[in-house]
Batch of 3 targets.
Target 1
Amino acid sequence: MKKFITIVMAVFMIAVLAGCGNTSEEEQTNKEVNVSFFTGKVETVDLIDEIIAAYNEQSNGVTVEQEYQNDASNVVKIKFASGEAPDVMTTYEQEFVDQSKYMDLGDMNEWWDRLIPSMKESCTDLNSGKQYRVCTNMTMAGFFYNKKMFAELGLEVATTWDQFVSNLEVIKEAYPDVDPWFIFGEAWHLGHLIEFMPHGYLKAKLGATACKEAMLSNDTEKLNWGAADGAMATFAKNLVDLQNKGLINADVLTATSDNCIDAFVTGKAAMFSNGMWCLSSILEKAPDMADDIGFAPYPAYMPDGVPVVLVAEDSGYSISADTANSAEAKDFLNYLFSAENQKKYAEALGSPSAFKDVDAKWAPQSVVDGVNAAVASATNIGFTNEKPAGFSGDDAGRLVQDLLAGTYTPEEFAKAYEEAWNAGF
């Protein structure tokens, strides 16, 4: 009898433990997890919110929450420093690569196998040869211009700075109420002007890899930021000259991206610098303008320079190396990267997909043809991801704000840029 009771008790305990184990597994499956998604990409906030809502609805307890910050590159530094790094982020800084803050994504073959090879190369860290982010799109940046206005005035796209200034002067004389070149004063945008023009000059002159190496090692002889006749001082001098001649908008320091788009679609601005990410905003406000949207490279502004156009990775995503939610973060990105969502994303953003299996009509054919022609006619450059740790693109943009406010002479600006760059290391 005792033996029988012992066996019954043992079976009962096994059943209880099995039941507990099943409950634990079920709780694990249905656990509530919050995944933070951090971005500075204003153009995609609404669409990403829509995709997040659809993901959360079917995610079995995982809730993704998006946070947008205008000054994202600096805000994320505070988050890393305070131990509150987002699980997933679109901000990417070499500083955090070097500090092992990002998760190595090299084994995510389900993503890389779908990606255009050149885009995987663009996502590869030069120092380690590893991938800490994955991009979903390609983008181009240059000058958007009003083709109808150019045709009326008999203007050709400029390849040199003298031709560029001449075009602006002709526009100003013919249309006194039009801003020939509209520049908006948001720090990221002004920082892009430095990336695409002075940095672009060096990328074309040295070559992409050599320029990256020079930036990473702070090769001052090759970069030569502070020289009175160098790329940075010449860029600043050109910008101030245009400002003094009234060839850029008078409200440059307070103008926003929305102001720029409004001015362009209403014919109050002839040209502006930006990337394909702004195309959807133009077409949303002026769908009939597609055939009048021109796209041109940045003209050569140094004696030994050449026209350049940005052709680079866009919409990059990284995962924090310290996240406790790596599986959930990857699951969300898998959902975001689906061909269906990426087609929607590329068409909403107005930017070609980097995925081979995504067939997106990202722009009207007339725009696509113009962009392809510009890309073929100029030296292609990439983004400057090799900036020093303590000197972001937004920081550079704030120096340009000071330049346009009269705080610096062009020579002083070049010196200030060099000092900020060096201090950033």
Target 2
Amino acid sequence: MNKLLTLVIAVVVAMPVVGVAAPRKNVQDVRVTFSKAVEKAEPAVVNIYAARVNTNVPKTGLQNMPAVDGRMQERIARSLGSGVIVRSSGVVVTNLHVIDGAQAIKVVLSDGREFSAKKVGQDEKLDLAILQIYRSSNEALPAAKFGNSDNLAVGDVVLAIGNPYGIGQSVSFGIVSAVERSAMQLSPYARFIQTDASINPGNSGGALVDSTGALVGINAGIFSKSGASNGIGFAIPASLVERVVNDITTKGTVVRPWFGAEGQMVTEMSAREAGLQRAQGVQIASVLPGSPAMRAGLQAGDIILSLDGNAIENPADLNEQILAMPNLLNKDAKLVYWRGGKRIDTTVTLTALPDRKTGSQLLIKGYNPMNSVKVEELGPALAAELKLPMGTKGVVAIDVPGAPALEAFSMPVEYGDLIMAINGSTIRTVGDVQQALESSRKEWSFRLLRGGKVVNIQTR
């Protein structure tokens, strides 16, 4: 028995274990460490400082009156976040919300070196931004190695590296709590890695690495009522991040397939009514004319069961499958749906999302409250960008001055407002907007869709 025990201990001690330091005197002295993984990954994780300059006219007690000296004041708003160098040439990935609207971006490496950077591309759907560091030489920068996030399993050890609260580069330890987790507040287009590794403000855009130091995710957000880590953090899988980086660095933009249909969760009741044995799939609510979904024969009421051989359980599944299928662009994908109590097998040819209708843009001019506002007629691309229902039609304000162009008015619209009516006239085209504004010289009424709510505004 003693010989057997001695043999087992000897075998355990001799086994190569990743991240375990060499034994000192006996088994009880074994020290578990992930210092090698940190040493490998940390140099590629950077701190990002973004500055936004907001110009305001200081006011006295009288509205629209400048301060005594009449000078403009600049308020510099700074945001703090993290990022990861993914190419030795200085390509950095971070969250879009970290640098959105920034006039100046500074990147600080873990060794203290500082660089200026510029944004070269973004992906609003995944809240990702790609930066390029300005370098004075061709010196290679430390770059992270992408890992296989598709192979992550619940219970795997992960490390979050970033700059929480601006205190400096820090590492937190945890496990993968869940995979393919839906987090609609962050993005309806992806399934996230959930971890209990501490992620706090300032960690956004930082690295989530596995026990070997490979990059498996970009930290994106937390679930918290206090604003601090409660052990529920979310990271964008590296498989999606790598595709975005490749698209932006090679094509300048992210090109994805477009389906052209919107749906809803199948309930137990709707499943029984359709003749399905259980609630599954996505029931189509609307199909956009001319879209791949319509060309494939889909109609409202159909229930999508699978796409390209992958089961569809809910709308998030459908969004993610389309998002993660750039290789199927302009190619046939297998589509299985349910209609009239029968399973139907067909194919759908996924095409790129149509470009925005830039030809339908109009810069409003004249003596009216919307002077200098740019508007655009809605199409699928703009509707997707503004997170409006796919089939929404009308005109949207896409460029709004920071202050009214004419001091006689207050600005009635905000960026992203859907203009439903002006002075009682229904707005369908940009021409309708200009015509309606010319119908009055004294007062104007606006009916807008803002943040999902109808807003009525009057100005004179």
Target 3
Amino acid sequence: MPSFSEILQRRTIFRDKDVLSPHYVPDVLPFREGEVEKIMLVLSGALKGMRAGNLFIYGKTGTGKTCSVRHVMKKFMQMESPAKTVYLNCRIYNSKYKVMHKIAKEFIPELEKSGFGISLIYEKLIEWLAGGKIQLIVVLDEIDMVKDLNELVYTLVRTNDELLGGGISVVGISNRLSFKEMLDPRSKSSLCETELTFAPYDAEKMKAILKQRLEQGFVQGAVDESALNLAAAIAATESGDARYALRLLLRAGEIVDAGGGQRIDDSHVEEARRSVEGDMIKEVIQTLPENQRIVLYAVANLSQKGGRYSKLGGNEDGENFLLSGEVYEEYSRVCNSLCVKKRSARWYREYLNELEMLGLITTIESGRGMRGHTRLIKPGYPAEELKKIVWETMGLEEEGKKKEK
């Protein structure tokens, strides 16, 4: 049995693993200089004692949204000003009450304990902002995870109407643009004063980002140039997600360390790809709204059973496509069994678009030989795996059955 001392003395190709983490914020953000400047311009008024504008940032996972905002927050708090910032991950703080309580207890010690009513929290927050004439920037990451978002946005914006000094500005970050359509007009107009889109990275940009991190994260010469190119190409082609590319290199390095090697080559990246893919799928599904997860389950469940399209003889190429209408019927059935309110057919079509964009499903338009015009759908990953992940992320063992604690 080895001791910690022996383990710590083993050779490693890593210099600093933290640099490869998606939570690491580098001093320089390649290819995001324009976005960073725009964020700074929107928020800069708060440093002069004026209310900053509200900002909505969206783009696919791993395009640098959170990293850029955190980079700006770090610069912001280095300035001499009574202005403050607070960051919230809305996967954790997913309701109006949780968000308001987190904001308040961050700056008002007497509200540290839970159990205070929302009215008291609101009044204390007003009192604190007005007393110090404080401009507060509230960053809501994965803002679409907040269950009662309209009420939250209304409450935060209404605060400014009651303040003679001080104010609150909101920065919302989301992986999905279409969620805005779920907001009522008043919330949408106030939240989306300024909008900023983060485009996915291409292979060349991905390579440059990886090169910046590996110089700090690995010992010199630990990564083959071809392995670097492969990791960048895989991530750019499959998702444009820089976090995925970083995780590939991190896992490849762990594989090399475990085998006592000294250098990452293409084979290690390919092995890492197989290991990392399942984790990434689960992370993506965890970010989906409940109804969208149910649509994904419906696709996977019907795919296992065999849809009407294949039974009608439309499956000549051997691929198990489903009819869009039968998937919607299955989605409606599962919503009913889980006592979840189903969304309209229009929202269902939006869900399909987003699931396809994330690579979780594939769709094609029906061709000749079918009446009417419909979409044909199939899962992007093994159906059994998708079903299992959906239920895990919803706290279920199977349809309608809660996990035992």
